[in-house]
Amino acid sequence: MAIATETQPQQHKDSSEVSGSAAEQRRWTLNDFDIGKPLGRGKFGHVYLAREKTSNHIVALKVLFKSQLQQSQVVHQLRREVEIQSHLRHPHILRLYGYFYDQKRVYLILEYAPKGELYKELQKCKYFSERRAATYVASLARALIYCHGKHVIHRDIKPENLLIGSQGELKIADFGWSVHTFNRRRTMCGTLDYLPPEMVESVEHDASVDIWSLGVLCYEFLYGVPPFEAKEHSDTYRRIIQVDLKFPPKPIVSSAAKDLISQMLVKDSSQRLPLHKLLEHPWIVQNAEPSGVYRS
Ligand code: AMP
């Protein structure tokens, strides 16, 4: 697959999902879609609501400019993201149905998440109720168990990468830093606040990096700020390495939630609570909606 170098319109199409015919192997082009309202703007382009003309299927069409991708040297990263995300099928992972491109742009055909960004919801509420936080954490744990089973590590779990589906269910939307691996990795990636000690220190890491990030996320859901936040990067770095974890008195958070977070934010990656055990933790069992759907 050659995303940025070819000039002819190209495709990768899971036609069973969008156009209804599993056997069909035709190429996507912009003409296959009616373009609707803009849904948002990203670093490399825009996202539009769109309807595939044959099936009437509503999707989100992400339009990325090749020149910007090349300039920022993220072509390889995008290629990996597309390859990984297009093969994942899970209720809490945003579907990537296919892609195509022309001379100037790359188009990603994505599942539409009508309720938008989780990040904005968190900003609006400041912090979530334990029921809401536990429902989201359990959903993400299930999605990550699925990914890890396919040897995919996400490596960049944070509120900005999560969208909300039509039923209020969480969807992991961004696989830009994910990696398909059978080996231990050493790459430095992601946003500092969510990185575990072994990635900050650039030592080997494995799927347990996602347990750490989920612990950071759980804390942020309940307190409204990530646990190792500091004014200076160097202080965040130090706090992560020392696992300088503090639970402020406000907002009031149950000791069961704090216990779960403390079992995920453990420096020794082999000692972090495995995700299947997380699903059995009393805080999750007592608070998470079994359906994974949170309705306010
Ligand atoms: P991104 O380039 O992925 O950061 O997307 C930019 C913005 O478009 C996001 O912040 C969302 O508000 C919106 N957006 C992206 N993908 C979708 C989607 N699949 N469904 C709904 N909105 C989306």
UniProtKB/TrEMBL annotation:
It catalyses: L-seryl-[protein] + ATP = O-phospho-L-seryl-[protein] + ADP + H(+); L-threonyl-[protein] + ATP = O-phospho-L-threonyl-[protein] + ADP + H(+). Residues 1-10 have a biased composition (Polar residues). Residues 1-24 are annotated as: Disordered. Residues 33-284 form the Protein kinase domain. Its EC number is 2.7.11.1. There is a cross-link at K158 (Glycyl lysine isopeptide (Lys-Gly) (interchain with G-Cter in SUMO2)). It is found in: Cytoplasm, Cytoskeleton, Spindle pole; Nucleus membrane. GO terms for cellular component: chromosome passenger complex; nuclear membrane; nucleus; spindle microtubule; spindle midzone; spindle pole. One of its GO terms (molecular function) is histone H3S10 kinase activity. ATP binds at K43, K62, E111, Y112, A113, E160, N161, D174. It comes from the Eukaryota. Coiled coil: none annotated. The active site is at D156. Keywords: ATP-binding, Cytoplasm, Cytoskeleton, Kinase, Membrane, Nucleotide-binding, Nucleus, Phosphoprotein, Serine/threonine-protein kinase, Transferase. GO terms for biological process: mitotic spindle organization; regulation of cytokinesis. It holds the Pfam family Pkinase. Belongs to the protein kinase superfamily. Ser/Thr protein kinase family. Aurora subfamily. PANTHER family: SERINE/THREONINE-PROTEIN KINASE IAL-RELATED. This is Aurora kinase. It comes from Glycine max. The lineage of its organism: Eukaryota, Viridiplantae, Streptophyta, Embryophyta, Tracheophyta. The gene is LOC100775451.
